[in-house]
Amino acid sequence: MPRTKSASAHRKVLDAALELIGENGVEATSMDAIAGRSGVSKATIYKHWADKDALLLELTGVLAGLNDRPPVNTADARLGMIAVLAYCPPEDNQVRQRTMPHLGAYAARNHAFGIAWRKMVTDPPRRELTQLIELGIANGKLPAGLDTDLALALLLGPMIYWKAFLSKTGQETPNNLAEQVVDAFWRAFRQKPER
Question: What is the pTM of this model?
């Protein structure tokens, strides 16, 4: 099905913003520059986004693959956790590598944007993992008193540590990192059968 003119303009603006931010950073990328690169008028851009921050938040969603997240496997809490932690957005990895550091730095400098940015990126996996932890508890596979926030920290922490610190040193992320993390979590917390 062909894209409508509006959808095509929307995508052109997103693509231009991704390129410009990857090349120049957030502050050096103006709405005028995005309009010039995309060939879409500023008036049309402002019909799609209230301001630059709204455009940046949508870019974050695109780079994080928020609209492409697969449904959570609730048939097996352990396998669902692995899938959530292993999820990698389909967007071009080079584009993400060039652009996300700029968006992250901008989020660190702009408090309101930073809160919205973190909420947008971290809420989906946190929500999904919480659902899976609750499923494990309901099925009697995880202890009833398990602290959900602690469980989330233990599951997400190693993934964030690897991406934030170890990947910067050139270490390749193991293909089965998510599985290793989830298996360590299950070994530590799974309910042992009563004898």
Answer: 0.76
